[in-house]
Structures are given as structure tokens and as C-alpha cells.
Amino acid sequence: MMPREFSTIELTIDEQVATIWLNRPESGNGINLQMMTEFKTAAFDLEANPDIRVVILRGRGRHFSVGGDMAMFTEAGDALPRVIADVITNFHDALLSLRRSTAASIAVVHGACAGGALSLALACDFVVAEDKAKFAAAYRKLGASADGGMTHALTRALGQRRALELLLLSDTFTASDALQMGLVNRLASSDNLESEVVRMAGILRGNAPASVRALKGLTYQAPTTSFDQQLSSELAAFAQCAGTADFREGVSAFAARRQPVFKGA
């Protein structure tokens, strides 16, 4: 199936790897209602496509995204609360779709990554950043609260005190800071960023979809689940994976000392 055509994002699919480009470079890929509506549509299409193994999120132009589009905030007038609610609803629906998907998601960050864009990156399964990228929570500068699960992601990664420090005291922070805090997985120079993304996507593409879905679900539920509940969930997930053709292929490949070829069955 050919991907849809969009105006504020761009969707490409190549060998089970989908790439969603935020495509408003003239505004620093500022997030507006049309972008989030299209992003939700793309995310739902990819979730429903069993052939997709990896989803990569990127930004056209100089930045991953500067966050919310300031023009939208000023032009909406008295309708701004309703517009913001529509933007965030579509945004959150898209993020939930990415989280449910059997595909692993990678945010590839360069330039600025602020506000809702930081939430978007943190909602992905993996974040790879150019070593010169700059990050910012930014919401306090607008007199606003956070969206896109930022308070959830930061509190899980940093604890309550560090999360509040980042939200209420910080300005920008560097890619090195983000790596040290555990907010990104890898840093790469501009010359090596592409090869690192290709390397990670290649590994993820080779994983069995049932395994990916199970491990994502187990990992994301773990911080709020008791040990005995987690053991029960792991038992159920392993038994479900064991009933797949991919599991039989994995066992056969291990015994034969070859790389498995998982077909999503």
C-alpha cells in the first residue's frame, strides 16, 4: 500500500522501515493543528500495517522541531483553548498509536527540540541525537503546562525532583546533558548520524514483531506494576510468543548457529 500524501508531514516507507518527516521547515517544524492531524493519520496507518517494523521520526530543515507554532497561538484569538485542545488530542492519539504498535520507534533529533517536540521524542522507544542538538522543556516560558506525556517521561527517567527542576528551572540543555540524564540513547556527529540511524533500524527491523510488542508492553508497564504482577505478565507474554512461527524459527536458527529470519508470523 502506497503511503498517503500530506502537506505538513512527509511519510516514506522503505523495506519495512517507515519515516515520518515533520515538514514545515520554514517555521522550524512548528507544531500546529494540521501537522498533528496528519501525524495522527500517519501513525494510525502505520500501526495498522503489519509489514512495518520500524518507525523513524525526523525533521526537515535546520531543526527537529521548535515545538508549538507561535503563529497558531497568536492567530487563534478567543478560540485558542479549543484549538489547543484539538491539537493535543490528535497529538496524544498519535503517541498512543506509536506506543501500541509492534514497530519500534526512533526519534532522530538535530538542531532544536523544544516543548511538544521534546515530548514527541521522549515518547518514542529510542532517541538518537546529533551531538550539537539543543533541548528545552520550554513550557514555563509560555506560562503553560506540559503535554505529550512529558511529565510522565521525565518523572520516570529522572525522578520527581529532577523532573521539576527541568520543567521549572531549566532553560536549554545540550545533547550531552540529555545523554547523561538518560533522555537519549545515542549521540552522533552530523557526519555519523545517518549511519547510526541505519544501523539501529537494521537491528530493530530484524526482530520478531510479537517479541517487540511484548517487550515494549512489559517495559512500559514495569514501573507501576508489582513484582508478582510483572512475573505473571512475563509468563503470559512468553507463552504467547512461543506459539508463533517466529519463535520456532528463532529456536531453529539458534540450534543451527545462523541468523533467524523473522516473518511476523
UniProtKB/TrEMBL annotation:
One Gene Ontology molecular-function label: isomerase activity
SUPFAM superfamilies noted in UniProt: ClpP/crotonase (SSF52096)
InterPro entries documented for this protein: ClpP/crotonase-like_dom_sf (IPR029045), Enoyl-CoA_hyd/isom_CS (IPR018376), Enoyl-CoA_hydra/iso (IPR001753), Enoyl-CoA_hydra_C (IPR014748)
Superkingdom, taxonomy of origin: Bacteria
Pfam families xref list: ECH_1 (PF00378)
Xref: PROSITE patterns: ENOYL_COA_HYDRATASE
PANTHER family according to UniProt: EG:BACN32G11.4 PROTEIN, ENOYL-COA HYDRATASE
Similarity remark: Belongs to the enoyl-CoA hydratase/isomerase family.
Protein name: Enoyl-CoA hydratase/isomerase family protein
